[in-house]
Amino acid sequence: MPDYQTILDEIRDEVQPLLTRGAVANYIPRLADVPREKFGMAVVTLDGQLFQTGDATEGFSVQSISKVYTLTLALQSIGDRLWQRVGREPSGNAFNSLVQLELENGLPRNPFINAGALVVADVVLATRDDPRARLLDTIRRCSANPILHDDPQVALSEKAHGFRNAALANFIRSFGNLENAIDEVLDFYFYQCSLVMSCVDLARGFLFLANQGRCPWSGDTVLSPDQAKRINALMLTCGTYDAAGDFAYHVGIPGKSGVGGGIVGVIPNRLAVAAWSPGLNAKGNSLAGSEALERFTSKTGLSIF
Amino acid sequence: MPDYQTILDEIRDEVQPLLTRGAVANYIPRLADVPREKFGMAVVTLDGQLFQTGDATEGFSVQSISKVYTLTLALQSIGDRLWQRVGREPSGNAFNSLVQLELENGLPRNPFINAGALVVADVVLATRDDPRARLLDTIRRCSANPILHDDPQVALSEKAHGFRNAALANFIRSFGNLENAIDEVLDFYFYQCSLVMSCVDLARGFLFLANQGRCPWSGDTVLSPDQAKRINALMLTCGTYDAAGDFAYHVGIPGKSGVGGGIVGVIPNRLAVAAWSPGLNAKGNSLAGSEALERFTSKTGLSIF
Amino acid sequence: MPDYQTILDEIRDEVQPLLTRGAVANYIPRLADVPREKFGMAVVTLDGQLFQTGDATEGFSVQSISKVYTLTLALQSIGDRLWQRVGREPSGNAFNSLVQLELENGLPRNPFINAGALVVADVVLATRDDPRARLLDTIRRCSANPILHDDPQVALSEKAHGFRNAALANFIRSFGNLENAIDEVLDFYFYQCSLVMSCVDLARGFLFLANQGRCPWSGDTVLSPDQAKRINALMLTCGTYDAAGDFAYHVGIPGKSGVGGGIVGVIPNRLAVAAWSPGLNAKGNSLAGSEALERFTSKTGLSIF
Amino acid sequence: MPDYQTILDEIRDEVQPLLTRGAVANYIPRLADVPREKFGMAVVTLDGQLFQTGDATEGFSVQSISKVYTLTLALQSIGDRLWQRVGREPSGNAFNSLVQLELENGLPRNPFINAGALVVADVVLATRDDPRARLLDTIRRCSANPILHDDPQVALSEKAHGFRNAALANFIRSFGNLENAIDEVLDFYFYQCSLVMSCVDLARGFLFLANQGRCPWSGDTVLSPDQAKRINALMLTCGTYDAAGDFAYHVGIPGKSGVGGGIVGVIPNRLAVAAWSPGLNAKGNSLAGSEALERFTSKTGLSIF
């Protein structure tokens, strides 16, 4: 086994010059206020060992990373029927684009673009009594963090500035691909984006995807081995917006990012790794976080390819 | 002067076989219920003579034809500053397309596509105390019909099925090109679409555009001669959705249509002409109405070209 | 009758400050070398009177203006069957765009975008023995200029830099909408673009479109009254690239422009007017030329609307 | 080790009903004439063991599969400088689309869409004396098949029907992203598509990508370990046209397909597997071949995820 602790500490030092190069998301004040020199990283291996460096236990807004969890819930609920309502192809357009949605009659390309996540949210809403509690409980158990919570101020801000997502939801609804009230779908979506997790939470919380769908500490079977494998495939092809090809090329593992600066990767049958740095690159992924993950796979020689 | 009455009666007979070929708009029940064998036509000349045939005095939902009046109010209010918020080019896409709007950063191509009409509605809302009364009063005076009114059931239905327009409004708002609350803009837009006019109302009500902006009976100066001329230009290039080129080619005069089956044309310094038949062609214009206007310009030899 | 001579001289003075603001087309040296302070303008009335100012007799490369003549020849040859191979709608995209062509399966939107002009060229090539001679003869007779000629150097340069047009031609061919050899179509297209005309030639040469399709001096019936009217409609909706709406709005008459800086307008039953200034605006139309035509219709009060 | 022979034979039996469901590529006669009931499959493991079933030694036109080899040559020649001329992102559009190319100014999205392959061909042409010999020699050595050859009739047919590729090449050239003469680029491209390989050839010939870039039998270092890894990443995200997401989801390994019906997959550090069946699905990938690879990864439990 590589010396993960040393590698993480090296990476933390190496990315320092990058921390000021990215642009912190500023569409809502709560995100804009996060200091951009923050950097944390954590690794959790299949046997439960934890390695961390920097601000690895500091919570941040997970934003789009939550889409992996709502996809998980939707697959738990309706299985492969989900794919009648959302595709599995990379979008080849910016992550909130309406163009492709119009050309493809309201069927979002994949569950990780906003349009797809709204449809997934609609599925989750339609199938359970208390979807927020179910989502929170799932994440808490996966992350072994019973006090993990949301940030209501973020959700409120998202809602106040959420015209693009409201446009998407109305547009999808006009094609008949949303069942619940639009405001409920949007509120649930803003809720999921507002969850607060640290690198340690994320590394722990994604380990079930490296472990055939089973959470090592809770013993929960979150997904079937096959479903876990397929979420990994989706993260690889669609997990980092319009930079998925580049991420696969440079980092070489399934990953999911959020505009809060978090980014998490999965190495099947090995480990999960998370990094956080609020400054984003032009594609909307954490600049130093992407670099950190690339260095991690280079230094460890780990890759799925 | 051509024998307009004979010409209108001929046309009414000639278009009979077409009345059953179009598809009546069915996205709301109130429109879907209109019998498709209806046909009316009316001509009003600059000196105030009225000619009519068929169901020319029966009211129908004007829908997009109202966009000419809200554009008129917007030009009255803010003049050429309007063009900082909406373009003047044909769209080259279906009338409710979001694609072009995305590529052009929230600036609608022209005031007659739905996106542009929403921005125009926003301008009208922003500048007067009671925009509905102002709109209704303007149309009543232009049409010399003091009891002209809206159909609240149509507006309610439009709202209940208005996801595409809500998507447009939210999308435009995300680019900062709407100032009023989205629901207010939509409500005003659905109100204007729900106005009920007959062919006679429309022919009278558009005559100011053939008359240098001045309404012959009320004596009102609705617009300056220059503004009237320019609205005519806009109707010619953008007034009949993605069939404007075809309409200019076949009919050869400025015109504006609505999905209620109405279509109205202006021959500058001569007359205004309106036709109504609920069945629509593939481009969303009245099938028999378009044909009726083409026959009218052919038989009279009138054209702007 | 307005005092055309005075008006032209006024306009010439007024546009002087604009002459250096446009960008001369520089994709081929022969065009780039034209001095940008050139300006000419000419008017020919239906009764044959000629008015001119500035560099009105200096020849320049007509470029896209020639598309009106090849459209004329194509309509002479196959009439309305032409519209099975090319549309009549404004494009809503840049004039050489392949995007729309792909979405619409190789049917160009109108005869004045490059794709449409290539199809028109193909039609002209397919129907006569010596299409170049036929084209040249038609233009010479219309312009009453028996020594009007092409500039072979321009055609050669166009060909050497004509990758975008070659892409269009191959693309259209892949949809089966070209019949002749691609190189022949391109050569004919580059030939037509290379024709050299002055403002006086153009004003004379477009007068048949203001005169029901008949050339006043030669007495030739170039087109039927109906065909002439319809070409005017096409020029209004599609004649000035993606600025057709703006041109209709500001100038208010049918017109056609070329990247050589020429621009010509038709006022049905009255006159034809041409202006030339090599500097182009952002839409590819002569900057001072467009302004000159706008001032002309303002000062004379002439407009079709 | 799974019992590969039994698995292959099972798959051969199971896919029989699918063989008649796909559509054989018919844009050139040579491809259209291939009997669609053909099916072959071969696996070669890292230690050189070969397993095969059905028509596994019958040659067919590799078409787009050759793009992996020209990419290999281009990386050998200019390394990462290649990425200044072609991207690494999935296209989200049909494989020969010009739309995205226009929106992105002539920089193809990835080396496996036709536009990208033309740029790669241009790079290969620019850097060596005899690129055809170099390409053929590389493939022969990798496949351990010294008599592997092209099919000149296929190349000729491709050229005769190659208008779409000619459009692409001219279009790319118009952006300055091709250096060699267009005809040379196209001829080389048609040559590479016309190479004839069997499933056994392909499984052997792709093994270097499962083996850190080194060919086991020749001992050649074809690429560095890092480069091999990255080609695998590219195949996963972009190797099967607009079905890459679906292929990753269902098959879960890097793969590359061609319209000749071939499809080859790589399981890093394990094996290469190839299948062939001429009938294609709606996305242009071998219908039975895709299914065969999916069954192979299911039955063996092998996947990169």
From TrEMBL, chains A, B, C, D:
Protein name, entry field: Glutaminase
SUPFAM superfamilies in UniProt: beta-lactamase/transpeptidase-like
Enzyme class: hydrolase
Keywords, comma-separated and alphabetical: Acetylation, Hydrolase
Nucleotide-binding among keywords: no
Binding-site residues for substrate, renumbered to this chain: 64, 114, 158, 165, 189, 241, 259
Organism: Rhodanobacter ginsengisoli
Keyword Nucleotidyltransferase appears in the UniProt entry: no
UniProt xrefs under InterPro entries: Beta-lactam/transpept-like, Glutaminase
Similarity remark: Belongs to the glutaminase family.
Assembly and oligomerization: Homotetramer.
GO molecular function (one): glutaminase activity
EC nos: 3.5.1.2
Gene name as annotated: glsA
Catalysed conversion reaction: L-glutamine + H2O = L-glutamate + NH4(+)
